[in-house]
């Protein structure tokens, strides 16, 4: 391994400050009166800090200093800590190390931009510079200085000639990223310093005319690792792109924020429509979640809008908003500026830090409920602007790994010293002791007690009295629910639930992040009654409950955040998402609960929970984002699983807010099929019979088997079903649950609603609709075709469509946009943005860079003149009537190992109700895109290889005896892709049943066998070669099915064969029957019986000799002596060849003639006409199907080439499998499609309203009947006394 060389220069532990000789303080970073900081950077793990300072009194004295990040407690100066391995540790007085860099950087003019970066482990430091191209001075100073930190000194390593920013990534390899105005160089800093991977940065700028990204001056000015003397566009672009570069992420903030990942390749990870916002933080997923299809770890992105003072959390994968943290209590002042955000505690919390005036503010939000749970502030001793000018690092928050506590760090001014402070953020504040009505209860109640027990029954439930806003209320903790009641004074004497009792809050426990990690069908329970914690402050505002699964899962307990709602909030009609979600969870539990006895209490609980849900819905406004985030999606899926919940969904869709549904990559685990108990018992019985048969008894084995089975059944340790639960949760959403529950009308209505709202939300909301189409295909639903039809001609607003303004402008001006006939789907022209950049080696980049720049300039010139000419030729009306549409393939083309993508599995499974067997669907555009992008070139190459194969084989078999000789080295070696196809196919049975695969296998096996024949001199060589030749020709013809005309004709032949196959089988059996009949009739006859015998007289002209002569036709023989010969003769009867039964005495046999007549009537007349009629109808059906008949063949060829003839990196390439494909359609067609969708939506709404009214009428009638029956029973029990 190579290693960068180092110079002989080393640091000293002390330096001359120009005033006095002193050691550096471990806590006080610098004296602001004598030192001026130029740069400061903190390592990604927050353990180390590096800075570049200059003496105020001596401008030529500049030092590089590295130290541990040691902080003093803001409330107790005796408490000092540092961070080691992500955990708090007791601070030690480590002496900082310093290195004199005065002669390295002095003399640089104002055109220099300086950058500082320290590695994750604090061992390496990079000091880099950027020199403006327009300046001409001091170009010799453009180099990147590298330093290695030793235990007691700092030494300088060999510098790199580089003009740009050098930054260490957040990895353990100390990888260094070099970013300049034109390229990004990614390398292993220590082991392979010269083996760089280079990406062209100019490709990030979309369109023909380059535009600058949207930058935020506050971020550029407030970055402590940056020293910017003079701004220019290149510096702004470089700084903006590399804001989150330590996380292997590049940010491209144009009118939409594009996020690029550098983890493996430079791929487009997401496009977020968040104009005017800047990304502040990314989340980190658990290892299990990140392993799914190798999804990027960063799943959530937090942005901040300075103008609106709103923090929005987006899903990185689809770019949709997940949570919106709005200012409700005026937390942020007008001058407040957020400096740092941090996702913590399994991404359930978002910690925010910022500054306002001379105050630092820390705030923690609970994302699931969008509520702020913690807020703290401290005085910094100086205004934030002055601290930033002094290069103080901005406040940040970290999570300790050992105890999950949060700690905030900031810098403050103490006299003339800048020091680092820390503050422990207690998001779980002090616990308040609340008087319990039944402290003696320690054991959890039974499942039905929380339903059966009356409100004033405190024997089984943990109950607390609380005083809230002048009213006495009661909190009831059951095994699965928490209930918050305002008990009415008109309550019943027995304490049962009264109509006037007010249920203010109810919640049933669900698994954390249910809908992704756990299924909503599973209800969790409280761990024990001691796990209830009331927090400080308002008792009813927030409390904590620790819950655990009902079943013994291998998972830790979860801390549930409970936010009880006040009466004031209820009266104001404010929508509380937590209250709504909690009530929906409770309603789901109540309608699935079993074992309860008090039906009256259950009816009251259900009724009041429904009232709670409806009242919450009434407070929701049109701008609510609850049903566009993950929490709302989980709630919708849960409501869809039972009848009353589906009624609530119908009410939800009557509201005007936006709805979007999330979808996740489908997991397809390998599951073993378990044998039923009956089968196991039958196996044991037969095993016992066999042992008896061979005379062996093995009672010990059977007893051991029984014992082991019993121990398994009675074991208290269950296997961990977490993975199965996660699979079930990931594979379901509200649409799939509605289909599973046969609620088709509601499914159609919600499908249309999501499709309609996607025009406003953007392209990210379309991925679920594609995913649902795959689900409908798997279950072979009749909803597949109408659902796919709706995905055509989806027009998204231009600002939400995923295309940047320059890209949209270039696409609208393209030739295809102006001149492509887009009357139907068959003529759609696919278009995709650049989602993956081609990488270069450093040497290749140096060599190819001039050519790349020349090609780019030539392309811009050609595009400019071409587009200008097109604008002159084309009419304005043509561009106005054409609009850009989009279809999402986010998970449709996602490859999962050797099984391929859902696209490949869809085609290779050969389902009868496949997506590509529907007529004129927009999914065909993916085939067109793949065909033009990479399949076409490979198909031509494959055809060329096969042509050589056919020619060489045909030539070889003609001269085989002279070409192939035994003992030579002529061998047939061909690793056919058919073997790989058999291994990779998702369903082996579908592979075996496919006729194409049999032909492909025969085209491989028969030529190989003929070569063996020629080499070994085996018999029947000519016959096998003849059959092989026919197979190869058939194989070649089938290859042409990718061409539409050939594919259409081939489909006709296939359908003809399928249609007449059964008839041909019956006909074949009839011919066999006639064959056996003829054998029985004629097998005993001699050959003379079938030979003509002619007799006559003859006279010789040369003599008087006369006589008679017999002429016998010896060429005929008994054709029914063997089965094969008899069957061939009978088969030829079909075509009028009757010679075997018309010559000799056979022609005079009446029985034979009768058999022939019956054969003619049955086979020739009946069967032939039936076959002809079936063929005619099959041809007509294929003709009506039109393009649909060929698309399936086309899809099969595309999938086969993608699976077998592409490398793994090509299958995962975004260039071949983009997330979104755009196409052009006429506005008239789009409007027609939208009107049909609106018409269907209105009809569905009316039908659902009609059903609801009918249901209400039935319920009212049922109640009236029950009332009348009760009155009759009451009257019958009355006893009349005599007057």
UniProtKB/TrEMBL annotation:
| Superkingdom, natural source | Eukaryota
Q: Which InterPro entries match?
A: WD40_repeat_dom_sf
Indicate, by first and last residue, each region the UniProt record lists as having compositional bias (Low complexity): 700-711
Write out the coiled-coil annotation as residue ranges. 1223-1275
Give the stretches traversing the membrane. Answer: 939-959, 990-1010, 1030-1053, 1060-1082, 1152-1179
Does the record bear Iron-sulfur in its keywords?
no
* Keywords of the record: Coiled coil, Membrane, Transmembrane, Transmembrane helix
Could you tell me which residues belong to the region Disordered?
695-719
What protein name is recorded for this chain? Ion transport domain-containing protein
């Amino acid at each position: 391994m190579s290693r960068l060389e180092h110079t002989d220069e080393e640091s000293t532990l002390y330096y001359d400050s120009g005033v006095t000789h002193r050691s550096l303080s471990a806590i006080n970073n610098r004296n602001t009166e004598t030192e001026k900081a130029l740069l400061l950077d903190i390592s990604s793990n927050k353990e180390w800090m590096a800075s570049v300072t200059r003496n105020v009194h001596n401008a030529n004295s500049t030092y590089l200093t590295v130290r541990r990040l040691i902080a003093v407690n803001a409330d107790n100066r005796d408490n000092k800590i540092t961070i080691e391995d992500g955990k708090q540790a007791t601070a030690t007085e480590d002496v900082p190390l310093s290195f004199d860099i005065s002669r390295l950087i002095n003399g640089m003019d104002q055109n220099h931009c300086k950058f500082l970066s320290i590695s994750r482990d604090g061992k390496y430091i990079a000091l880099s510079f950027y020199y403006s191209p327009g300046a001409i001075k001091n170009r010799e100073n453009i180099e990147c200085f590298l330093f290695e930190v030793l235990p007691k000194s700092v030494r300088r390593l060999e510098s790199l000639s580089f003009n740009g920013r050098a930054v260490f990534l957040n990895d353990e390899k100390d990888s260094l990223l070099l970013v300049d105005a034109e390229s990004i160089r990614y390398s292993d800093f220590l082991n392979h310093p010269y083996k760089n991977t280079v990406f062209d940065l100019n490709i990030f700028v979309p369109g023909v005319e380059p535009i600058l990204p949207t930058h935020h001056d506050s971020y550029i000015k407030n970055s402590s690792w940056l020293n910017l003397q003079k701004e220019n566009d290149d510096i702004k672009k470089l700084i903006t792109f590399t804001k989150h570069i330590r996380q292997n992420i590049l940010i491209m903030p144009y009118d939409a924020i594009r996020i690029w990942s550098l983890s493996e390749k430079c791929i487009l990870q997401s496009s977020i429509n968040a104009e005017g916002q800047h990304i502040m933080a990314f989340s980190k997923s658990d290892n299990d979640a990140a392993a799914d299809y190798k999804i990027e770890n960063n799943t959530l992105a937090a942005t901040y809008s300075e103008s609106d003072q709103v923090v929005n959390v987006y899903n990185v994968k689809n770019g949709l908003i997940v949570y919106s943290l709005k200012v409700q209590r005026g937390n942020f002042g007008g001058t407040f500026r957020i400096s740092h955000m941090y996702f913590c505690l399994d991404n359930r919390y978002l910690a925010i830090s910022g500054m306002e005036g001379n105050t630092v503010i820390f705030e923690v939000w609970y994302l699931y409920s969008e509520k702020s749970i913690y807020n703290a502030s401290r005085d910094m001793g100086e205004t934030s602007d002055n601290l930033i000018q002094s290069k103080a690092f901005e406040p940040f928050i970290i999570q300790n790994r050992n105890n999950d506590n949060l700690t905030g760090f900031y810098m403050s001014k103490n006299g003339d010293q800048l020091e680092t402070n820390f503050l422990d953020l207690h998001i779980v504040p002090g616990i308040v002791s609340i008087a319990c009505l039944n402290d003696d209860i320690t054991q959890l109640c039974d499942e039905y007690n929380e339903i059966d027990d009356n409100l004033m029954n405190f024997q089984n439930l943990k109950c607390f009295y609380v005083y809230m806003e002048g009213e006495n209320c009661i909190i009831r903790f059951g095994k699965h629910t928490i209930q918050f009641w305002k008990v009415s004074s008109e309550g019943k004497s027995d304490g049962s639930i009264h109509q006037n009792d007010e249920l203010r809050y109810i919640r049933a426990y669900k698994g954390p992040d249910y809908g992704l990690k756990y299924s909503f069908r599973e209800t969790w329970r409280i761990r024990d009654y001691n796990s209830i914690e009331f927090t400080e402050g308002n008792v009813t505002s927030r409390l904590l409950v620790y819950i655990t699964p009902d079943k013994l899962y291998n998972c830790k307990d979860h801390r549930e955040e409970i936010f009880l709602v006040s009466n004031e909030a209820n009266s104001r009609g404010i929508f509380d998402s937590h209250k709504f979600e909690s009530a929906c969870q409770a309603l789901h539990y109540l309608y699935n609960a079993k074992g309860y006895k008090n039906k009256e209490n259950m009816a009251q609980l259900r009724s009041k929970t429904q009232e709670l849900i409806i009242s919450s819905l009434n407070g929701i406004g049109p701008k609510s984002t609850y049903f566009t985030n993950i929490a709302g999606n989980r709630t919708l899926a849960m409501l869809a699983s039972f009848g009353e919940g589906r009624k609530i969904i119908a009410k939800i869709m009557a509201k005007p807010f936006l709805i979007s549904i999330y979808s996740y990559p489908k997991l397809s685990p390998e599951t073993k099929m378990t044998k039923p108990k009956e089968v196991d018992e039958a196996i044991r019985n037969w095993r016992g019979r066999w042992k008896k048969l061979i005379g062996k008894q093995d009672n010990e084995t059977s007893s051991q088997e029984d014992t082991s089975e019993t121990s398994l059944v009675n074991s208290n340790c269950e296997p961990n079903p977490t993975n199965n639960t996660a699979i079930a949760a990931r594979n379901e959403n509200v649409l799939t649950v509605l289909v599973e529950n046969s609620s088709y009308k509601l499914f159609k209505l919600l499908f249309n609603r999501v499709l309609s709202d996607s025009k406003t939300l953007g392209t990210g909301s379309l991925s679920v609709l594609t995913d649902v189409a795959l689900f409908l295909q798997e279950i072979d639903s009749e909803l597949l075709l109408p659902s796919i039809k709706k995905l055509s001609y989806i027009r998204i607003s231009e600002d939400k469509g995923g295309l940047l303004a320059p890209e949209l402008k270039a696409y609208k001006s393209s030739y295809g946009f102006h001149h492509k006939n887009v009357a139907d789907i068959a003529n759609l022209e696919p278009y995709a943005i650049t989602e993956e950049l081609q990488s270069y080696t450093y040497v290749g980049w140096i060599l190819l860079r001039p050519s790349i720049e020349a090609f780019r300039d030539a392309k811009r010139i050609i595009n400019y003149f071409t587009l200008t000419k097109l604008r002159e030729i084309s009419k304005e009306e043509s561009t106005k009537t054409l609009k850009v549409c989009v279809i999402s393939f986010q998970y449709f083309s996602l490859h999962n190992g050797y099984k391929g993508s859902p696209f490949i599995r869809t085609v290779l499974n050969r389902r009868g109700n496949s997506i590509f067997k529907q007529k004129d669907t927009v999914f065909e555009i993916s085939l067109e895109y793949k065909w033009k992008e990479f399949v076409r070139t490979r198909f031509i190459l494959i055809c060329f290889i096969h042509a050589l194969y056919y020619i060489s084989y045909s030539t070889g078999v003609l001269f085989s005896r002279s070409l192939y000789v035994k003992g030579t080295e002529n061998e047939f070696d061909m690793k056919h892709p058919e073997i790989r196809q058999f291994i990779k196919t998702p369903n082996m049975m579908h592979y075996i049943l496919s006729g194409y695969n049999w032909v492909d296998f025969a085209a491989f096996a028969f030529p190989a066998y003929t070569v063996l024949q020629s080499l070994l001199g085996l018999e029947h060589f000519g016959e096998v070669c003849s059959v092989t030749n026919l197979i190869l020709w058939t194989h070649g013809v089938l290859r042409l099915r990718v061409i539409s005309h050939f594919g259409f004709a081939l489909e006709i032949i296939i359908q003809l064969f399928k249609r007449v196959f059964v008839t041909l089988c019956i006909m074949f059996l009839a011919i066999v029957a006639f064959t056996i009949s003829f054998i029985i009739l004629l097998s005993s006859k001699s050959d003379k019986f079938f030979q003509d015998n002619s007799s006559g007289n003859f006279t010789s002209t040369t003599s008087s000799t006369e006589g008679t002569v017999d002429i016998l036709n010896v060429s005929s023989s008994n054709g029914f002596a063997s089965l094969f010969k008899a069957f061939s003769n009978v088969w030829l009867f079909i075509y009028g060849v009757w010679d075997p039964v018309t010559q000799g005495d056979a022609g005079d046999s009446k029985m034979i003639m009768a058999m022939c007549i019956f054969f003619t009537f049955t086979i020739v007349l009946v069967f032939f006409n039936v076959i002809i009629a079936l063929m005619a109808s099959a041809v007509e059906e294929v003709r009506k199907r039109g393009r649909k008949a060929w698309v399936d063949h086309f899809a099969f060829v595309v999938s086969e080439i993608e699976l077998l003839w592409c490398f793994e990196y090509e299958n995962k390439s975004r260039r071949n499998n983009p997330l979104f494909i755009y196409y052009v359609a006429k506005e008239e067609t789009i409007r027609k499609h939208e009107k049909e969708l609106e018409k269907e939506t209105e009809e569905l709404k009316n039908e659902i309203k009609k059903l609801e009214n009918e249901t209400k009428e039935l319920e009212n009638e049922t109640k009236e009947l029950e009332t009348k029956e009760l009155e009759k029973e009451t009257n019958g029990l009355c006893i009349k006394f005599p007057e």
